[in-house]
Each structure stands twice: as C-alpha cells, then as structure tokens.
C-alpha cells in the first residue's frame, strides 16, 4: 500500500502525514478548508526541525523529499481517489467521526482500507457508518510518532483478519512498532494507562492541591520520567483533553475542560505546536 490519505491535519494528523511521506509513501492530506491547507508548509518546517533534532540520519535532502510526496487538498473526493489506506484523525467526537466515515464511504475506491486514529472511541461505534465494516479498524499513534513510534492496531468484531495483517505490515513500512490488539479496548494499551494518570494530575490542579509546575516537578524527580503530565498535555495539544473532558460526568473533569478553554484555547495557547500551552516554548 503506497497511497495514504489522512483526514485531518492537526497535531497528530500532520505527524502521520509527514512520517508516512518520510518513509516513502505518497500522502494526500485532507482538511476542511483551503485556509487550513495553506498553513501546512509551516507545519512541515516545524516537523523537519524536530526530525533533525531527534533522528540522526534526517538529512535535508530526505526531509525535502518527504515534503514532495505530500499533497494537501480541501477536496475530499480528490484526496480519496487513489487511496489504498485511509487514516482518519478528525476531532475526538463520535458524531463527527461517524459523519466523516459516511462521506468517505461514498467517495473512496473499493480497494481502500479504513482506519480511525481515535484515542478513546471504539471502532465498532463507527464501522456501521461505512460501506465496508470488514475493512474498518483502529490504527492509533502516540504523539511525536517519529520518536515514540508505537502503532496500536485494534480490530472490531467485523474486521477481516487479512485486513488486520495488512495494516500491521503498513505500520512497519511507516517505521512504527505494531502493537496488535485483538479485542476492543477503549484507550487501547497506551491511553488505558495514560488517561487515568493525566486525569489524576488535572484533578490535583483543578482542586488547588498544587500548581501544575509542582505536579510536573514531583512526577519527574520522583520517577525519573522525562516529562510531567502537564508537559504531556502540551505535547498532545489542548483540543484533545478539552473534547475528552467537557462532557464528563465527573464535575472536576468538566471544570478542567472549562479552564482549558478559557485559560488556554481562547487565548491561542494550543500546546507545544503553537509555541504556548501550560508552558512557553521557543
């Protein structure tokens, strides 16, 4: 599978696009407006610098070749016309994902395999909104995928085993370490471990137990971890924790979502990718 279409060019979507192109795939980058697409070159420059920092053999020539294999478009039909595999990275709301897959099913060729990168939602909740549930599954990435290169591949009850195996091979070709998940699990392996940890940190902060700086400092000093929970929030970007928390039944998590919106999102502090989140970045 050489032709990848990625739906959504946000923090993780743009990383999936660039990593696949870096590993030699031809990538169609789709988003909902020409204005968003026009900003992608800035994102590629940001990622090129990150690759040069973190990957020893990431020479300018190889990075420029990756960019040349990316085509951005706000035309979904154009983005899907030759897709061997489609990875969806749209906002973490079930209704948006379901409606997106319904549109994709009308436009994608019969050969296309469909993957959702949803971090918490189950693929079985989206598969009925496609015309090919046997070719639908989850393919989930950790943030900064060029460095933290797990690819969690999770089937749903109707996923064909051969399709599952094809996505495992595609993950390897993208430079990922495939993590095979044979039974649906909200949050896969990574987020089943990570989300309770982040929720505990946000709970401490919202209730005024400690500052976010001291929460991060405690975790890093006591465990030797390279990043604290609020540094992880900055890496993930503010929209994901906001979307995950705003409809929570837990009043503390709902308050966390409101603080994320008023203190950060409304002030353009979208996380590390924007230069500002809980912390300021050069």
Automatic annotation (TrEMBL):
Transmembrane segments: none annotated. Residues 187-281 form the 3-hydroxyacyl-CoA dehydrogenase C-terminal domain. One of its GO terms (molecular function) is NAD+ binding. GO terms for biological process: fatty acid beta-oxidation. It catalyses: a (3S)-3-hydroxyacyl-CoA + NAD(+) = a 3-oxoacyl-CoA + NADH + H(+). InterPro entries: 3-OHacyl-CoA_DH, 3-OHacyl-CoA_DH_NAD-bd, 3HC_DH_C, 6-PGluconate_DH-like_C_sf, 6PGD_dom2, Mito_3-hydroxyacyl-CoA_DH, NAD(P)-bd_dom_sf. Pathway: Lipid metabolism; butanoate metabolism; Lipid metabolism; fatty acid beta-oxidation. This is 3-hydroxybutyryl-CoA dehydrogenase. It comes from Bifidobacterium aemilianum.
């Amino acid at each position: 599978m050489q032709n990848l279409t990625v739906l959504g060019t946000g923090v993780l979507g743009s990383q999936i696009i660039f990593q696949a192109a870096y590993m030699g795939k031809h990538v169609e980058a789709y988003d909902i407006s020409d204005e968003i697409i026009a900003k992608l070159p800035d994102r590629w420059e940001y990622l090129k610098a990150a690759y040069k920092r973190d990957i020893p053999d990431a020479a300018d020539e190889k990075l420029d070749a990756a960019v040349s294999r990316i085509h951005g478009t706000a035309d979904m039909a154009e983005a899907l016309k030759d897709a061997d595999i489609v990875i969806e990275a749209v906002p973490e709301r079930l209704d948006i994902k379901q409606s997106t897959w319904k549109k994709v099913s009308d436009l994608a060729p019969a050969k296309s395999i469909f993957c959702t990168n949803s971090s918490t939602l189950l693929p079985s909740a989206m598969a009925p909104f496609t015309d090919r549930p046997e070719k639908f599954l989850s393919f989930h990435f950790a943030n900064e995928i060029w460095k933290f290169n797990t690819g969690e591949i999770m089937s749903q009850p109707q996923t064909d085993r051969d399709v599952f195996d094809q996505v495992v091979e595609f993950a390897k070709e993208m430079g990922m370490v495939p993590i095979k998940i044979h039974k649906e699990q909200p949050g896969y392996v990574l987020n089943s471990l990570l989300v309770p940890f982040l929720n505990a940190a946000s709970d401490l902060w919202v209730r005024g137990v400690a500052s976010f700086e001291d929460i991060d400092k405690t975790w890093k000093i006591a465990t030797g971890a390279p990043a604290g929970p609020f540094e992880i929030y900055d890496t993930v970007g503010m929209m994901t924790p906001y979307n995950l928390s705003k409809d929570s039944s837990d009043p503390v998590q709902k308050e966390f979502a409101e603080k994320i919106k008023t203190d950060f999102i409304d002030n353009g502090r979208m996380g590390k990718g924007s230069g500002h989140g809980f912390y300021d970045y050069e």
